[in-house]
Amino acid sequence: MSRSLPSGTHVAPSILSADFARLGSQVQEVLDAGARIIHVDVMDGHFVPPITVGPLVVAALREQADAADAALDVHLMIERPERQIAEFVKAGADSVTIHAEATPHIAYAVEHLREHGVGAGVAINPSTPPQALAEVAHLIDVALCMTVNPGWGGQPFIARSPGKVRRLREQVGPQTAIEVDGGIDPRTAPLCREAGASLFVAGSAVFGSPAGPGESFRAIAAALGPV
Ligand code: DX5
Ligand code: ZN
Q1: Is 4 domain-assigned?
Q2: Which of 48, 72, 124, 204 to mutate to test the pocket of ligand 1 (most atoms within 8 A of CB)?
Q3: pTM for this model (two decimals)
């Protein structure tokens, strides 16, 4: 089995800001608007204060994602993520991102992801320097640069993030996709793209916007130009 995120530039709607009472129809709206990556935020109440969802929700979205040829991008904001990888792979994750701050065993966790045949990502918090990825850059598919502090949707974009994305690009080289997450909207996405990002997670700007998820997704994609 080999799964991964699609290559190229993508806006990845984060279901964190969706209406969970009608999750299926909300996700369908963004799939119909062209989304090919759905971002699932997993929080454990330890690494970050909130608790969100687990493998059950990944499994619940799998068939719908398959029908649209879309990938499930699982962002683990949990301590000791290496202990949960097998469950999320079994549930149908195409790519799993762990936090560099959440385990002393990043390399082991990344190798574990590779053995499972899914995309391997490592995320860094705003206070973690790009150098934290120096020894695993050659092993990972995705470097996720948090552009807010993890834990909540709807926070303002940290203004110094594009500079950090540039330094991260130098650190990880051209082969690794850079994903940005937090405060991404039609204004901030292009700033991150110029700095070297190609994956743009957006929660509240997609599911919390009055225009509705489909149109709001398209507005961010249009701000990034032809993809
Ligand atoms: C925050 C999560 C994000 C969140 C982003 O910790 O990792 O994926 O959904 O939300 P917005 O786009 O509203 O900043
Ligand atoms: Zn996320």
Answers
A1: no
A2: 204
A3: 0.98
